[in-house]
Design goal:
Layout: H1 9-23, H2 27-56
């Protein structure tokens, strides 16, 4: 991975749209949004970990019992 991963054109457009939305938020709205976004990022990371463990066959049995 010597080359940096770049955003697709669609992702760049989405990012610009997001930027416009954030510019119109109040400070409080932006802070609340960041907290929710961070929570979603952590949930996403946990899902990736779970899926990888399952795919690699290293997850523990009865983990949620």
């Amino acid at each position: 991975m010597s080359q940096p991963i770049e955003l697709t054109l669609e992702q760049q457009f989405s990012l610009r749209s997001f930027e416009t939305q954030v510019e119109h938020m109040s400070r409080e709205q932006a802070q609340d949004f960041l907290i929710k976004l961070y929570e979603q990022m952590m949930v996403k990371e946990n899902m990736y970990k779970h899926f990888l463990k399952h795919q690699w066959g290293i997850e523990t049995a009865n983990q949620y019992e």
